[in-house]
Design a protein that fits this description.
The chain is an alpha+beta fold. It has a single domain, classed as 2,3-Dihydroxybiphenyl 1,2-Dioxygenase, domain 1, CATH 3.10.180.10. It is about 20% helix and about 35% strand. The strands form 2 sheets. The chain has an 8-stranded mixed sheet with strand order 2-3-4-1-13-16-15-14, with helices on both faces. Strand 11 and strand 12 form a beta hairpin. The longest helix is centred in the first third of the chain and has 11 residues. About 50% of the residues are buried. It comes from Paraglaciecola polaris LMG 21857. This is VOC domain-containing protein.
Length: about 375
């Protein structure tokens, strides 16, 4: 086949996230956003999150959710020649007896949206997650800003996908003390991933540009982690990213978006590329409840969201930082010509939780 290539968080949490995060310059203004970037793009080492790689054995369900549901465009299966396949096998630590087809999912006309590299595996592999439980460690979600979550909620459910909770509507404070409404649903996406649909009302810019159908994203990705000091140090010291918000909150418990035990407290950190207003990461670290540890590593070739890819200004600097930090380098740089990242030198390393990170420096 060929195709053209929580329960909600606390209102307080979403207030921090949604009043302080914008994904394009039009979503930011110094007067309306206390956490608009104060750093400069020119000082960034790693750029905003560029590509998220998801491994699956269910092409039909993946296309049903991301294409038919979230409105992304699809190209594939892409032509991956023997040389590129060999390089990717090394970069991603893929076993020799496993093959795959590659699809590119993207938001047509919106270059700043995160791409999805969908790897359709030749055989089942272990799953990164065992369920959609919010306490499971590892990669959690992709976020999809849109103009009408009420309509999108009905549409996604009509396609057969459930959610962590009913659609939630709630007020969010602005820095000036006024409020605006939010509509949000966290859907149970294929492969035990989550897709977050979210709309800001009252004339507020959406959390990323939307297409002619009012759909946008992916604009961010999240993980549930432990030992967040070490985890966040990896992203700041190795990749040169910055923490824009870092707070501890008490969740809304079984009435909140993540449906957590009542009284749950967690650290909630928001990480950006310097100067960026898009492609950021959210990290949740539970303080007074035990997280659930899945049986399998949060990495390719396991099924699910197994890799983040970042363009970088200097691959050499990233690798020097990784060695200084003590990070595992999976593959030294390999020159590739790849349909998703172009002509680039690419290397891979692991975050402290074993999550695979791909970094690439464009070759002109």
């Amino acid at each position: 086949m060929s195709l053209k290539l929580n329960n909600r968080f606390l209102i307080l949490i979403m207030g921090v996230l949604l009043t302080c995060l914008g994904f394009m310059p039009h979503a930011h203004s110094e007067s309306n956003d206390a956490l608009a970037p104060k750093s400069q793009v020119r000082d960034a080492l790693a750029m905003p999150l560029h590509t998220v790689t998801i491994a699956t054995v269910s092409l039909e369900q993946s296309l049903l959710f991301y294409r038919d549901g979230m409105g992304m465009s699809v190209e594939g299966p892409l032509t991956i020649g023997p040389a590129l396949e060999k390089s990717q096998r090394t970069l991603w630590d893929m076993p020799g007896d496993l093959s795959w087809q590659t699809y590119r999912l993207y938001r047509k006309g919106i270059d700043s949206a995160i791409q999805i590299r969908l790897l359709v595996l030749s055989k089942p592999m272990p799953s990164i997650h065992d369920s959609w439980n919010s306490r499971e460690l590892g990669p959690f979600s992709l976020g999809f800003p849109n103009n009408n979550t009420i309509a999108l909620d009905k549409h996604i459910r009509t396609l057969g996908f459930e959610a962590l909770n009913a659609l939630e509507s709630y007020p969010i404070p602005r820095p000036d003390g006024s409020t605006y409404p939010i509509d949000e649903t966290i859907f149970n996406a294929p492969d035990f991933n989550h897709g977050v649909a979210i709309t800001r009302g009252d004339g507020m810019a959406q959390l990323g540009p939307t297409d002619k159908h009012g759909k946008g994203g992916p604009a961010y990705s999240a993980q549930v982690i432990t030992d967040s000091d070490s985890q966040l140090k990896f992203y700041t010291d190795v990749l040169g990213l910055e923490i824009r918000s870092d707070r501890v909150f008490k969740s809304a418990g079984d009435k909140g978006a993540m449906n957590l035990p009542n009284g749950t407290e967690f650290r909630f950190a928001i990480v950006y590329s310097k100067g960026a207003t898009t492609g950021h990461m959210l990290f949740v670290d539970f303080h007074n409840v035990e997280p659930i540890k899945p049986k399998n590593a949060p990495s390719l070739p396991n099924i699910g969201l197994g890799m983040w890819s970042f363009p970088v200004r200097s691959l050499q600097t990233v690798l020097e930082n990784a060695n200084a930090y003590g990070a595992e380098i999976v593959s030294a740089p390999i020159k590739v010509v790849d349909p998703l990242v172009g002509s680039a030198n690419v290397a891979t390393l692991r975050a402290p939780n074993g999550f695979l990170i791909e970094v690439f420096e464009e070759q002109k």
